[in-house]
Amino acid sequence: MARRSIVPAVVPTPTVSPFLLAETGAVSRRIEALGVPRTLPAGGHLYRQGDTASVFHVIVRGRVRVHMLRPDGTERVISWAEPGAGLGEGPCFDGAPHPVTATAVVPCEVLSIARDTLVEAARDDPELLVEVVRRVAHKQRVLHLHVCLDGLPARERVALLLGHLVETYGGGALGAPTRLSVRPPVDELALMVGLTRVTTSRELSRLVAEGVLQKDGRDIVVRDLPSLRRRVDAVAV
User: Fold this and answer.
1) Exposure pattern of 127-150 as b/e (b: 16+ CB <10 Å)?
2) 33-71: buried (b, 16+ CB within 10 Å) or exposed (e) per residue?
3) What's the average model confidence in pLDDT over 64-76?
4) Using CA atoms, how far apart are residues 3 and 42, in angstroms rounded to an integer?
5) What is the predicted pLDDT for the residue at 205?
6) pLDDT of 12 strictly over 90
């Protein structure tokens, strides 16, 4: 079989967000075709911090929470991964332990792709390896985002996180109230930006008082999307 040449593609720079979304395109579909299906119950671990593995994964259905235990014993949520997102590519290829844990938030279906299977397929389809490198680079940018967040005041951290939530789970038209399609607990939001629950709750209440947000039970409704976007643009990292 003839080797497929790599044709560089012009790819727009994506907004780096702690929410890992679907990897689209023909190359991603070819990677998924190499996977072995498996299921994971809610609360089950796809992998644990410190584990080693020779496989990486693509989520087919469900949502996965990616988090780490820091040396001081505190937890940090690194990302939420949605259907179509890839997980665990770095440790699969460098052989080092996983730096994070991936836990199913709800029952999940995933595809597990073995390193040797992908390397063998890449002999005739080298774009597969290029795609894996791109995904690893993107996750490095997610970690960079967390480093930058730690240097911001609490108000700006919460504004940035809400901006990413709207991009990922919003869907309202500009100027119209936008109800998020997920109901993240305040504790979870706090863990994503390195704040305490009390501080995060205080900043959300401040945005409610300023008319930017509305709390409807556990739902978060962005009432003033242009105002939120201005705040995000002022501190975007």
Assistant:
1) bbbebbeebbebbeebeebbeebe
2) ebbeeeebeeeeebbeeeeebebbbbbbebbbbbbeeee
3) 94
4) 42
5) 94
6) no
**pLDDT, position 216:** 83
Answer for the pair 189, 77: CB distance below 8 angstroms, yes or no. no
Nearest to 104 by CA among 82, 72, 137: 82
Query: How far is the C-alpha of 154 from the C-alpha of 143, rounded, in Å?
Result: 18
pTM for the complete prediction? 0.86
Tokens of 99: 């730096």
- Give pLDDT tens digits for 89-111: 999 999 999 999 999 999 999 99
- The CA distances from residue 12 to 9, 15, 144, 182, in Å, are 10, 9, 19, 27
Question: Do residues 222 and 172 lie in contact, with contact meaning Cβ atoms separated by under 8 Å?
Answer: yes
Q: Which two tokens stand for residue 39?
A: 């299921």
| DSSP sequence for 4-37 | PPP-----PPPPP-SEE----SHHHHHHHTT-EE
Radius of gyration of the chain (CA): 19
Q: What angle do CA 11, 236, 142 make, to 5 degrees?
A: 60
How far apart are alpha carbons 107 and 46 in whole angstroms? Answer: 11
Amino acid (1-letter code) at residue 199 = T
In terms of Cα–Cα distance, which of 114, 61, 64, 121 is closest to 89? 114
